Amino acid sequence: MTDRSTALFTDRYELTMLEAALRSGTAQRRCVFELFTRRLSGGRRFGVLAGTGRLLDLIRDFRFDDDELRYLQDDKVVDAATLAFLKSYRFRGSVSGYREGELYFPGSPVLTIEGTFAEAVMLETLALSVLNYDSAVATAAARMAIAAGDRPLAEMGSRRTGERSAVAAARAAFIAGFDATSNLEAGRVWGIPTMGTAAHSFTLLHEREQDAFRAQIEALGTGTTLLVDTYDIRTGVDTAIRVAGPGLGGVRLDSGDLPIVAAAVRAQLDGLGATGTKITVTSDLDEYAIATLAAAPVDSYGVGTSLVTGSGTPTAGMVYKLVARQAADGSWVGVAKSSADKASKGGRKTAFRVRDAGTATQELIMVADGFEPAGTAPEDADARALQVPLIDGGDIDASFEGPAGVHAARAHHARVREELPVRALALSRSGPAIPTVFVDVA
Amino acid sequence: MTDRSTALFTDRYELTMLEAALRSGTAQRRCVFELFTRRLSGGRRFGVLAGTGRLLDLIRDFRFDDDELRYLQDDKVVDAATLAFLKSYRFRGSVSGYREGELYFPGSPVLTIEGTFAEAVMLETLALSVLNYDSAVATAAARMAIAAGDRPLAEMGSRRTGERSAVAAARAAFIAGFDATSNLEAGRVWGIPTMGTAAHSFTLLHEREQDAFRAQIEALGTGTTLLVDTYDIRTGVDTAIRVAGPGLGGVRLDSGDLPIVAAAVRAQLDGLGATGTKITVTSDLDEYAIATLAAAPVDSYGVGTSLVTGSGTPTAGMVYKLVARQAADGSWVGVAKSSADKASKGGRKTAFRVRDAGTATQELIMVADGFEPAGTAPEDADARALQVPLIDGGDIDASFEGPAGVHAARAHHARVREELPVRALALSRSGPAIPTVFVDVA
pLDDT over 90 for what percent of chain A? Predict the structure, then answer.
């Protein structure tokens, strides 16, 4: 691994478009791109935006250094004039968007990028990669958090997604309501609490289960959580309390029919006097399994595979579209393709969440024909403006980056989730919880 | 971004187990861990192993530098003795495994890690992250390549997965039979051919479609591929040939009912004398859509979302299990947990692909009780040994790394796919194409 620029996390066609635009004189036309999703995949009732703070970090490192330029030259990806342009490239445009942790619906302009065509077109792949993956995980995480109610949730899916996506997944899950992660890099980089004690291999390393438990307790204290299902669960629980005493912090169950097993283990623990010992379950959970366990005596959940793969919807399906640009005479014009099933709506969007007695009723999107924002929501409505400035003329607002940005996003998500109508909290497949209403402001 | 160690792409419990084992004196026991999948998720008939070469690179960078140690100390993840151990940690054990690009089946020991418990337990998360994601993509890619037959396939899904997983996905798809990628970083790092010309935004940047086509052709020549579905496809094709002439390289269709649209476009192109102009289709393809297009006049496919998300199976479901260890007296013993539905088979495995007249008939796995490999396959069988050494006492075999490793894996995959029985090539859900047979060698 070397200290890398992020500039080649980019589809080749962005650079070939740049080359063609530099030649034809259109590269310097000012443009507005918007990032949004046409629908909520998987019958979701809302989406949760995540990745914005991470994207800002990555845009900071989006530059063409010697390694990148040499590759583009050697592989003849672009011509010499384009290479010269890339050498001094920095994004000097502006970006606004929904706050990280905010809810979104079909058509919500979660990110708006303004700049010359040359500078804005190049961020397409990077912005989509980050927001599509992170939002898919955050959306699944929010559903799991709703299902879990007051019980804590830990993210432990690193092993079931790419090694760096794992860090992003831990971050997205924390924003959407998870309480901790097993991933140490997420702890280091994003300030997320980490958790974890032992795997089955630790028990198997020892001659007897009791030897493993004793070793763990000597190192981590009786407040630790012992994994009791390597062999027979009933024997494992007995051994755990015999070794640790009734003050044992917790036991973890990673297999079996969890509602039944959890009830039996709770009764066994109580019978042994270990009434304060908590039960954590971690076997192949998703939001539906968590809901099924609501009445079982479970104290916390660990979720892996289904979380980091978006629980059946591994990508948020967002797209990055040119919606307005300058014409040859300098005037602004809204633009949109009209491809079958993929038509989009031209013009710059300004978005509001309309509420009635504190409950969201509508995603209101005012559409301007050109560059200028389309003004304000109707004065008689309780409407919350959804977009905030993120990058101004190339200057990144650092308050959205790093651990502070993550914790602010988590707090924002908790607040805005309270606005959701009750029907949005159901887990079944359905349409968006509130309608998206476009209003043209000519 | 800073120049990073990979040591914290790790679940916290690996370090807490290390701490407990260092205290109890079991950390130096020699161990054998195996990485395998219990089943082929998604009704797949075979799996394709990918990620091995990438994993070797990452193991090379698995070290605890000041940043990592400071975090582990500040967050009180482990005690001082464990920090001291980690400071000088390097993996000095040995690793063997299936060649990258090889097929696998339930129970196939695709990676075997030998070393002390302390050094081997820490690679669990990293090894699983890499092989689970990359193999899920490679397995989907192989099915698409089978469906595409002789028509070339391009990977263009970077925007639908995490920005670094995107690079891994391009690499895995290439190994499993794709011909090119849109991802420039995959081109730079892994030597994979890149492709791509223009998006709809390039057409929308210009006043008229013909202006955009002319600009693209001036930059990239008439051999380029024009995207003709921004507005009306029929008009787009007419404009394309009018601007480029009948020698136009290709047109790309990214929307609509592709079998019907492709046939209409082919007839239109032929009518305009552009009989050599190729048709590329790229709209929401997966292996089933590709199969549906077999009779349509399509020349090549571009695949995005479904490929990088494993076409419904976004993780390969592999696990990392302790299968043998030294006892207190130095003797070796096979170990396995017996958890409900997750029981595994102890003892070190040696794997062979048994063939009959060149066609695979069986995954034969010889199981030893302890450390020593379990010998050879029956002499009367045509059996190909599947495991090769990858790391020997900490020394990584560099021939599996970098672009050379990727190209060797691609060639190996093409060879071994020829061994599959015909029933393995069907796309429908079913069981493994060949049975896995375990033979205990006591």
Answer: 92
Domain shared by B322 and B411, yes or no: yes
CATH code of residue A110 = 3.20.140.10
Whether A267 and A293 map to the same domain: the answer is yes
DSSP strand pairing (A94-98 vs A387-392): antiparallel
Q: Is residue A357 part of a domain?
A: no
Q: How far apart are CA A35 and CA A98, in angstroms?
A: 11
Among B283, B304, B331, residue at a domain's last position:
B283
Residue A375 lies in a domain: no
Q: Are residues B278 and B353 in the same domain?
A: no
Q: Provide the domain limits for residue B245.
A: 197-283
Contacts of A381 (CB under 8 A, 6+ apart): A352, A354, A364
Residues A123 and A216 in one domain: no
**Residues in B touching A3 (Cβ below 8 Å):** 1-3
The pLDDT tens digits for A158-179 are 999 999 999 999 999 999 999 9
- Please tell me the distance in Å from A291's CA to the nearest CA on chain B: 22
On chain B, the residues whose CB falls within 8 A of the CB of A206 are: 24, 26
pLDDT over 70 (residue B374): no
Of A270, A297, A312, the domain-final residue: A312
Chain A residues with CB inside 8 Å of B314's CB? 161, 309-310, 314
CATH code of the domain containing B236: 3.20.20.70
Are A314 and B161 in contact (CB < 8 Å)? yes
The minimal CB distance from B159 to the residues A1, A132, A283 is found for A132
Residues B41 and B130 in one domain: yes
Are the C-beta atoms of B434 and B361 separated by less than 8 Å? yes
For residue B185, the chain A residue with the least C-alpha distance is A8
**A299 and A328 belong to one structural domain:** no
Q: A131 with A153, same domain? A: no
Residue B183 within a domain: no
Q: What does the pLDDT average to over B115-125?
A: 97
Q: Which range (A99-113, B195-209, B328-342) has the least confidence?
A: B328-342
Q: What is the pTM of this model?
A: 0.97
Domain match, B269 and B334 both: no
Does residue A371 lie in a domain region? no
Domain count, chain B: 2
For the stretch A331-383, pLDDT in tens is 999 999 887 777 678 999 999 999 999 999 999 999 987 667 766 777 778 99
A/B interface, count of CB pairs below 8 Å: 379
